[in-house]
Design a protein that fits this description.
Length: 120
């Protein structure tokens, strides 16, 4: 089954399957089925990024250490869910280029290369 990633700003679709919000503070008017804030960037990382104190390479290193490694059990849960279900992970950024949802989706693919990961 596929795991999609997209911005929560996009219109939801029946093709999304289980919509999993991986934002720290989601907008309550958005539609999502499951909220996993443990997969959001830690607040110090988020604030450092907003202030311009950390570049993208630093962001990725920090995020990998504090989320991908530290919360690997949650990412494995996503990979397990995606074996039998259509999953869409959601966050705020419109582009996945410099977005944590892309890093999460890539880690799911690393865990299980058989999952069709679609990053939007």
């Amino acid at each position: 089954m596929p795991l999609f990633s997209k911005s929560i700003q996009e219109i939801d679709s029946r093709d999304d399957g289980f919509r999993i919000c991986i934002m720290r503070k989601p907008h309550m008017d958005s539609s999502w089925d499951i909220w996993m804030p443990v997969l959001a960037p830690p607040l110090p990382l988020f604030e450092s990024c907003k202030k311009g104190e950390v570049d993208w390479a630093g962001y990725v290193e920090w995020f990998r250490r504090d989320v991908i490694v530290a919360r690997s059990d949650h990412i494995r849960l996503l990979a397990d869910m995606a074996k039998d279900n259509v999953i869409t992970i959601l966050c705020w950024e419109k582009s996945p280029e410099r977005c944590h949802r892309r890093l999460i989706a890539e880690e799911v693919l690393r865990i299980n290369p058989k999952i069709a990961v679609v990053i939007k």
